[in-house]
Structures are given as C-alpha cells and as structure tokens.
Design brief:
This protein is of the alpha+beta class. It folds into two domains: about 160 residues, 2-Layer Sandwich (Creatine Kinase, Chain A, domain 2), CATH 3.30.590; about 90 residues. The chain has 13 helices and ten strands. The strands form two sheets. An eight-stranded antiparallel sheet has the order 2-3-4-5-1-8-10-9, covered by helices on one side. It has a two-stranded antiparallel ribbon with strand order 6-7. β3 and β4 form a beta hairpin. α9 packs across α10. One of its GO terms (molecular function) is creatine kinase activity.
C-alpha cells in the first residue's frame, strides 16, 4: 500500500457503505490516546526516543493485517509535501496537529482507511476507528480489539487509580474521544441549533465543526463528542453521547417535517437553486459549495432529487477542499484557480451520476 492510494480517492472505501440513521449521522468515530510507559510525552521526549517509537511502528506493523483492516501503510509525516498533509487532514486520516508538528511523526493507515494510527502526535499513539452512520457501540468494540492487539507488544502508561496517562490532562482516564459527524440542516435553518449547543456543552459534551476543534460547521455538518474522560467508563461515556445524538436526530427529523409542511415551496426552491448552482457554476468558493451540497443532500433525503446519490456528495465535500484540489491539479493554485477547478469538478462529477 502506497501513499498514492490515499491521495487518489476523495471518499474512503468505508464511507461508501450505509449505516443506521445515515441520512443524518454521517459517521461514528472512536479515538484512543495511549503512551509508552517508559518514554516521555512527545512534547518533552528526546528526538531519539521519538524516532525509536517511529521505527518500532514501521518494523512491527507496516503491511500487517488485523481482522478486516488490511495492509497497514506506514507514512512518515516529514516525507510528505504540504499538499499531501492537507489531503490526509481533509480525509480525517490525520489531525491538523500531526500535520503541523511532524517531529518523528508518522501515520499508519489501513487499506480501507477505516483505521488510522497517529504516531508521536500529542501522545505517542492515537488510534482512530470509523464506522458509517450511527454505530458508536460497534466502533468502540472494534477499537478495543485493535487496542488490545497493539498492547500485545506495547507497555502502556497506565495508573490503577487514574487510568491511561496522557499528555493533556483532559484525556486522562479512558483516553477516549467518541464522536459522531451529523448533518443538521433543518436545525440550522430554524436556528434551533444555536440554543441546543450550550445545552449540549453543559452535559459534558462539545459541538465542533467538520474538522474538530476550532473549525467551522461547513455544510451544516457538526461533530458531537465527549469532553469527560476521567471518572466514567468508556461504556458510560458512549451511553451519554448516544442519548444526546438520538435526541438531535429526533429534533432534526421533526424540524425537517415542519419545514416541509409549512414552507415546502421555499424549501424546494432552496434545494433546486443549490442544485442549479452546483450543476452550472463556473466559479464557486468552498463555503458556497458546502452550503449547496448540504441543500442538495437534504433534497435527496426528501426524495426531491433522485438522480444523485449521497455518496457523490460525501465525495465532493472532500474533493472540493483546497488540498485535494491542488493534489488533483498537481500544482499550487491561487484562490481563484481553486474556485474555478472546484466548479469544474463538481459539474463533471454530477454529470457522471446521470
């Protein structure tokens, strides 16, 4: 498995599958933070020690297979161009932090891109495992199994009282961040999301944009995740998150029904105007593209648009990002050049759906 494999396709293979409530929940993710017991955290460790960890992962796990996760590619971050790093971030295979702080850093990614391991990020090891739709319990089960597989060869930093020890105190305990990516256009249109976010935060959860901390909710896509990792079991954290997500799903469905009942013509006009922009624009900025893609996806969910699949929109949400556009063009592009290429690619991909 080579780096080019991950560069060629905007949509990860696992994203082509449908999951429970996939009209609203795009994906479920479990992230586990772990550290070697006998090495200082990356922020303090000697470069030589971090390079030893990097070499360990390459020697032990490159091209290995665990269950359904085949042929792990080992990718040193320092070997990547800035565009290649950006593409991996846009596909959620690595974090912006790993891309920026690449001292002896690496990524280990399965062939289907469902599992990625970030090496020497904020912690020595950060495991990410994704499932399509609303499948937090299944994602947690598989993440535990993968974690156990790594632990066969690694002595984790663990305290009987505090749990897993991590670089940031907010991750101590389970070391787990569970999150779901949700498409919430109706709650955004009705502005209900503005009062829901503070209420969610009070429950020990956090609402972020599509690329996590500090990012915007492009295309009405929100990431909901836990903040508390200490004092609760992984199962309890998942239960709390699932309860809130189920309520959000219910509120989103009700808001969609209400909009369709009260303002169906306005909604249809909004959806088909967005569809027209995507089909015929010659220049389109990323925010406008994300907004239009969100509206068209809603039109697909309502059955108003039947000749475009959800998958193509998932693909376009990544394909139209700056890094992927420049990877596609094989050169650095100005903002205007990106806007022109973005419009061209969207037209081309929508034509292929016919």
């Amino acid at each position: 498995m080579t780096l080019q494999h991950f560069m060629n396709e905007a949509i990860s293979p696992w994203m082509r599958e449908e999951g429970p409530d996939s009209d609203i929940v795009l994906s479920s993710r479990i992230r586990l933070a772990r550290n070697f017991s006998d090495v200082s955290y990356p922020i303090l460790a000697d470069l030589e020690k971090l390079e030893d960890i990097q070499s360990f992962f390459k020697e032990e796990y490159e091209h290995q297979t665990f269950q359904d996760y085949e042929d792990f590619a080992f990718i040193p971050i320092n070997d990547l161009t800035s565009t290649e790093k950006r593409v991996l971030v846009e596909k959620h295979l690595i974090s912006p932090h790993l891309a920026k702080n690449s001292q002896a850093a690496a990524a280990m990614i399965s062939k289907n891109e469902q599992v990625s391991v970030m090496v020497n990020e904020e912690d020595h090891i950060r495991i990410q495992l994704y499932f399509p739709g609303f499948q937090l319990n299944k994602a947690l089960e598989k993440a535990f199994e993968f974690d156990d597989w790594l632990e066969e060869k690694i002595d984790y930093a663990f305290d009987e009282t505090r749990g897993y020890l991590t670089s940031c105190p907010t991750n101590v305990g389970t070391g787990m961040r569970a999150s779901v990516m949700m498409h919430l256009p109706a709650l955004t249109m009705t502005k209900q999301i503005n009062r829901m976010i503070p209420a969610i935060n009070q429950l020990g959860l956090v609402v972020r944009g599509i690329y996590g901390e500090g990012s915007e909710a492009l295309g009405n896509i929100f990431q909901i995740s836990n903040q508390i990792t200490l004092g609760k079991s992984e199962e309890d954290i998942i239960d709390d998150l699932q309860s809130v997500v189920r309520q959000l799903i219910e509120h989103e469905r009700k808001a969609r029904s209400r909009i369709m009942e009260q303002s169906s013509i306005k909604l249809e006009d909004r959806i088909f105007r967005s569809y027209g922009v995507l089909k015929y624009s010659r220049i389109i900025e990323s925010k406008e593209a994300a907004r239009c893609l969100s509206n068209v996806r809603l039109g697909i969910d309502f059955g108003l648009i039947q000749d475009v699949s959800r998958n193509i929109l998932n693909e376009l949400m990544v394909l139209t990002q700056p890094g992927f556009l420049q990877q596609y063009a094989k050169k650095t592009l100005s903002a205007n050049e990106r806007d022109v290429l973005r419009a061209s690619l969207i037209r081309e991909r929508l034509q292929l759906e016919k």
